[in-house]
């Protein structure tokens, strides 16, 4: 029997309010680093301990597999391993596959983890001539298609949406490619992640027996990162919830950075309109960062009245550093030299991150790292498992797993498969998969220790967009860094033309700046090459 009072002992007053709000609609506004995961997991555990919730009937929704895994781990430590904590896509997929034979019949369609091959084929079928920068154009097309689908806009209605698209592509080209993309998927009996949500939602809405079983199975809901919910995701949550009000949502309006992809903070900000009786609780105590870093973050919040300021509790540390360079190239060399020096003096590479607004900025720092011989891993807007070399490597693993080499261990065989890829830009990604293999091989829980089992692990990760990590310095876009933290953060490229990025809402770009600052625990380095960003005034004038 779990002691309910003990569950509350480690919480501060604000977090305890969340844990004690065990019934009905609850809205938690949680600033960066305020312990929201601790608060909501303890709420589930406490409500289960006192008998208010059945942990087997709880569905906790997160937006990354890493966050879902962390939530399950914390609940297991609290004595409740049976709570279902999943990404929204994972939860939808589980339900769709379970009910598919009885609702739709026949074999279920293939879920595609990468849109790239289909979009490439759709572009060719539509007769679209892409700009010179093919990769960025394809990324723009994928973003526009995803935006349309999460807003439930069909190809024939895209023009009427008056969506403003990137200058690299036209609205007409988007419509043609989107149309061809949907046709190709139907022909190949394939589903993308947006189809997955739509079909699951429609199944629950239209099939009474399915709806009854789902509502019986899941009676209590927790939704993390609620500020980034899309209309399609909200529709699925509504289908899960039905006419009940047992839902706790957690979010931070100041960290809304995905509106370009269809996310909207309106559901978080308007939560009490739908649930007038909802209890609203704010978490404002900042546990992640030093007071000096939080002072900088609060200055950004004040500059645009974006949210409640955070109260520091950690010991004082170094003041954030702002360095000006004449060019982006000089900035890259300067940052690389600093990190080289830090590592030579014993600082752990994995405790350091370099964050930038764009992939192009990361390419500049990446080149500098290569020249200095500094190992690194890249997190970007591009899905790790969409990279061509990763797909090819997984294909090789799949082929080898059919008839494994009896003279080699599975890790040795994997290393042999990896050798042709360990060059150039492919090195960090393939190296991360090899590093994951070594970690799993040392883990007694990973059984059986075979290539086939490893293949299953990485295919699960691909489905969840949960890339492996290495003990090296991280290079990341600001968007990809959301939800992560490091002891030392180098926030580079805070200059004109980058932050804010052209043709993007300035308010969202300022929120992105705030997200970057709040990734740092102890040390924050900011820099730019050329003219400074106007956003720097918010912190230099405070």
Characteristic key phrases:
542 residues, alpha/beta, Rossmann fold, six-stranded parallel β-sheet, globular
What would your notes on this structure say?
This protein has 542 residues and is α/β, with parallel strands linked by helices. It folds into four domains: 4-92 and 199-286, P-loop containing nucleotide triphosphate hydrolases (Rossmann fold), CATH 3.40.50.300; 113-191, Arc Repressor Mutant, subunit A; 291-382 and 472-540, P-loop containing nucleotide triphosphate hydrolases (Rossmann fold, 3-Layer(aba) Sandwich), CATH 3.40.50; 388-464, no CATH class. Helix content is 48%, strand content 13%. The protein is built from 22 helices and 16 strands. It has helices at 4-9, 13-20, 36-49, 65-77, 88-103, 116-126, 134-150, 171-188, 193-206, 208-217, 231-241, 266-269, 271-274, 291-303, 328-344, 359-372, 388-402, 410-418, 427-441, 451-464, 506-517, 537-540, and strands spanning 26-30, 58-62, 84-87, 110-111, 190-191, 220-223, 247-251, 279-283, 285-286, 311-312, 321-325, 352-356, 376-379, 473-477, 486-491, 520-529. The strands form four sheets. A six-stranded parallel sheet has the order 3-2-6-7-1-8. The chain has a six-stranded parallel sheet with strand order 11-16-15-12-14-13. Strand 2 (58-62), helix 4 and strand 3 (84-87) form a beta-alpha-beta unit.
